[in-house]
Amino acid sequence: EKAGLTIEINDVEKPIRNEKELLVEVKSTALNRLDTILRENGFKHDILGLELAGVVVEADLNSSFKVGDKVMGLVNHGGYAQYACIPESKQGSVTQSDAYKSELCAALIKDTKTHFENKTIKPIVDSVYNLEDVGEAHKRMEANLNMGKIILKVD
To answer: Fewer CB within 10 Å: N-end or C-end of the chain?
Structure first.
């Protein structure tokens, strides 16, 4: 580990969402190369994490998102926490509908079925770490040992 660069696991308060934001219970997150760059360059937020997937626990009454919707997105920080806020208007940052995702998957499978059957297309997951081991995940990425995505399990 580089001098002065540590990762601590601490209890934090649940964030208070602003209007037009979703409060999401984080179910999974991933280590993004930018997380390590931000950390190495004195990132000023207490909680790292740029990617997350989870379940909406609070939303505006007039929001198109409802409590219980499954979402995923990019955030400025906070993806490593149990709860995070996502701006719902951030284009492309949140996907709500299981039906929409099913349509996308069906189209992808139709267009790429042969590649999947021949196993010429497959997701590349390098490794999976528990959130408590995020320091080890950062070390792996900082040492350029990963080939593919490093997944962080939240619960």
So the answer is: C
Joined together, the tokens standing for residue 86 give 């996502």
Q: What is the pTM of this model?
A: 0.62
| DSSP annotation string for 116-151 | HHTTSS---EEEEEEGGGHHHHHHHHHTT--SSEEE
Residue 114, CB half-sphere, CA atoms under 13 Å: how many?
A: 1
pLDDT, tens only, 5-32: 566 777 888 999 999 999 999 988 887 7
How far does CA 111 lie from the centroid of its chain? 27
Can you list the positions of beta strands (E) in the chain? 21-31, 51-58, 70-74, 83-87, 125-130, 149-153
Dihedral angle of Cα 42, 46, 51, 53, to the nearest 10 degrees: 170
Q: Could you tell me the two tokens for 127?
A: 């490794």
d(CA 40, CA 56): 31
